[in-house]
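User: My instructor asked us to take a sequence, write out its structure as C-alpha cells, and then describe one feature of it. I'm not sure where to start. Here is the sequence I was given:
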Amino acid sequence: MTRFVLFLFFYGLCVMSISNMILYLNYRTLGYSWHAVLLYILHGAELYLLLVAVIGMVSVVYGLIPSRSPFS
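Assistant: Let's start with the prediction itself. The C-alpha cells for your sequence are:
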C-alpha cells in the first residue's frame, strides 16, 4: 500500500513539473528566443523536481523492497 501511495505522489510531482515546463513554452509567444526559454527551464526548480520524481517512480516500481512484510 505504501508503494502505491509513493508512486502516486511521485507521479503527481512529475505531472505538475511537466505541465509547468509546458506553460513556460508560452514565453516563446511573447518574443523570447528558444535559447532564453530553455535556459529558464533548465535553471528552474521544476526540472530538478521532475528528475527527483522520475527517479522516485523508478525506484518504487523497480525497487527490491518487498511490498509486504514476510511476517504479516
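For the description part of your assignment, you could build on this observation: The chain has a mean pLDDT of 88. Try explaining in your own words what that tells you about the chain.
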